[in-house]
Amino acid sequence: MTSSAEPVSRAERKKQELRREIIDAAFDCFAERGYHATGIADVATRLGIGHGTFYRYFQNKRDIVDHVVDDLVGRVTGALTAENAPDAVSTLAEYREQSARIGESLARIFGEDPRVPRLLLFEAPGIDRAMAERILDLFDLAAALTSAYLSHGVELGYLRADLDVDNTARAINGMILGTAISSLRTPEAQTAQSEALRRVMYDGIAAR
Amino acid sequence: MTSSAEPVSRAERKKQELRREIIDAAFDCFAERGYHATGIADVATRLGIGHGTFYRYFQNKRDIVDHVVDDLVGRVTGALTAENAPDAVSTLAEYREQSARIGESLARIFGEDPRVPRLLLFEAPGIDRAMAERILDLFDLAAALTSAYLSHGVELGYLRADLDVDNTARAINGMILGTAISSLRTPEAQTAQSEALRRVMYDGIAAR
DNA sequence: CATCGAACGGAATCGCGTGTCAGTTTCGGA
DNA sequence: TCCGAAACTGACACGCGATTCCGTTCGATG
């Protein structure tokens, strides 16, 4: 797949490598001081390159933050979709396992590096309207996925027949969001947090 | 209470009034173009005053956004606490009613003016670290309140005895957060959304 | 080793927004 | 009607950071 041939001259590879490094350095800076507070010079200095060089790789400041966010969004959607087809499941027990798996996957991304949720949830939406829309798109995508899982469960009869799949999906994603945000301050509560989340989903909160 | 006397000269009242108007205008601007994109001049122009005047009322740009946020946080905490003592409730049915009431109250604030959630959730956290912490504080406060309700319910026996109150509180607040965010794009779904939220809380999602 | 083009660095440019200040207006009281 | 204090105004000084540009360096090629 990556062998789409072409020159791939040694120099070309070097170039792609630096491009990659710039994206990473920008991510570091944005996460550390925030988007508006970091200058192009900061990013360049962190890599030990002149800031004029930056402009050989990216159009402008707005351009790079898009690439940084691309990267993070990719990681998240990857975790959401990888190895987890909605129709791979046919009982409630299997569904619980699958949701636990997805939950862990997200927890890993968010928990291992709190800068990821910080940037996506706290920094990005304040950059401009377009970026805020991108984040909302991400929420919508997540809602659509969750919704598909729920629909599947309703069809097979292991979830409530009268479930309002779309809105319930958003509610569930909200809980996940809440977990991600909590973990910004108390990363160690992650596990208990997602356990509580699953209990609410499956058992509700009322006494029996 | 407000009659703490003192001069309250006519001029003094005028002054407080303008101060108030500046806060409102700043809110309008921040919500419209975002914090970083609005200049003091924009705020002043909107009121038809010179921007020098602004500095007679507030120290600087950072100062005013604090006051704007104060205002919004006040509205939200007001909705969360007003007329809703945790111990005013003693059965599950009453608890459902109370939670519906609080939900409606929040829905009113967020639904009537989407700029409120947009500013609190999307704009504020990106301003600087201190502001992000303020928003996290607000989440913590909300979690503590919800937690108190849940504890009360566990003690009286109408909620599950093994409920992890703290983490469940955060999960529930997450769902509320999800609702607020959804309503940024689809305000009309508010009601269905919070209905779904309550169903998850009380009935879970599994078939019986 | 000479040549040439591409990549690099960082000094200089440019525009913008914050915050100040000195002159002007408003207003209440005598 | 007049005076002085307080409030207002907007031109201006200032700093900061994004972007440009050109002299220098690097490295491939013959």
From TrEMBL, chains A, B:
Cross-referenced Gene3D superfamilies: Homeodomain-like (1.10.10.60), Tetracycline Repressor, domain 2 (1.10.357.10)
Gene Ontology molecular function terms on file: DNA-binding transcription factor activity; transcription cis-regulatory region binding
UniProt domain HTH tetR-type: residue ranges: 16-76
Keyword Transcription included in the entry's annotation: yes
InterPro entries attached to this UniProt entry: Homeodomain-like_sf, HTH-type_TetR-like_transc_reg, HTH_TetR, Tet_transcr_reg_TetR-rel_C_sf
One protein family per Pfam: TetR_N
SUPFAM superfamilies in the record: Homeodomain-like, Tetracyclin repressor-like, C-terminal domain
Keywords assigned by UniProt, alphabetized: DNA-binding, Transcription, Transcription regulation
Annotation: DNA-binding region: 39-58
Highest taxon, organism lineage: Bacteria
Keyword Transcription: yes
Protein name per Swiss-Prot or TrEMBL: DNA-binding transcriptional regulator, AcrR family
Lineage of origin: Bacteria, Bacillati, Actinomycetota, Actinomycetes, Pseudonocardiales
